[in-house]
Write a structure and sequence with these properties.
It is a single chain. By secondary structure, the protein is mainly alpha-helical. It has one domain. The protein contains eleven helices and no strands. The longest helix is centred in the N-terminal third of the chain and has 38 residues. It is globular, with a radius of gyration of 19 Å. The two termini are 26 Å apart. About 6% of the residues have low confidence.
């Protein structure tokens, strides 16, 4: 029975996250490699490589290219996460998972997703300026805003409001989940630093690998948390959630 105050199960979220990646490694790791891992590695290599010695113009061009690369990477990351969210909800709902279909649905929602990403970035950024804690609270409140937008077809502000409603009473568990993902990212970051001393090419390859893995985990993890929140708090089964993408 649905219970708005029920506690979500972090082990089930983690099991679902690993499970969907294991069942569809080509989709999760392949997509993450193509639109997160490779572009991120190219940007990292650009930043870590030697500056051109063509005077001020070369210096300016280098930073302009990095700025463009960062924006492109942000856009690709938004599409990747939304695609993997659709794939995760379909998988957990027992529906077929097609990369083309999932990608198409993400692209169709690109502008609202971009707006959502900008609002979240501004809100969380301001929150961190106010002694960090408000920023953390906003991250937890808006933890499942993207799955809400994809699965419930809501606008930017309605998705944020709906996410805050779903995560109410579960922020502690979501914080632990976020810490787990943060620790994984930290471990990867340490390894990245170690490999960075071996040269630009090795750094680029290792960055590509690690960002591919973390991108897949992020997309599947956020979607799994959303599915768990809907199931525990509202009694919504995953098949019903997946029907919206049919």
């Amino acid at each position: 029975m649905a219970d708005a105050n029920a506690k979500i199960d972090i082990s089930r979220i983690l099991n679902n996250t690993i499970g969907v990646i294991g069942r569809h490694p080509f989709i999760y790791l392949g997509l993450s490699l193509l639109i997160v891992g490779i572009p991120n590695a190219l940007l990292e290599t650009m930043q870590g490589g030697p500056m051109t010695d063509s005077g001020n113009f070369g210096f300016s061009a280098s930073y302009s290219a990095q700025g463009f690369g960062f924006i492109a990477l942000m856009v690709l990351s938004i599409i990747a996460q939304a695609t993997l969210i659709v794939a995760t909800i379909n998988d957990l709902g027992g529906k077929p998972v097609s990369m083309g279909e999932c990608f198409s649905k993400a692209v169709n929602k690109f502008l609202p997703l971009l707006g959502l990403g900008i609002i979240v970035a501004i809100g969380v950024g301001l929150g961190f300026l106010l002694l960090i804690v408000p920023g953390v609270i906003l991250i937890l409140m808006w933890f499942v805003a993207t799955p809400v937008m994809m699965a419930e077809d809501k606008g930017v502000f309605d998705s944020l409001s709906r996410s805050a409603e779903l995560t109410s009473g579960s922020k502690g568990t979501l914080f632990i989940l976020a810490i787990i993902f943060f620790v994984i990212a930290m471990i990867i970051g340490v390894l990245l630093t170690m490999f960075g001393s071996m040269g630009t090419v090795v750094l680029g390859l290792f960055t590509m690998l690690t960002n591919t893995i973390t991108g897949a985990l992020q997309g599947a993890g956020v979607a799994s948390a959303y599915v768990e929140l809907r199931a525990v708090k509202e009694g919504t089964d995953t098949e019903t959630l997946a029907d919206v993408f049919a």
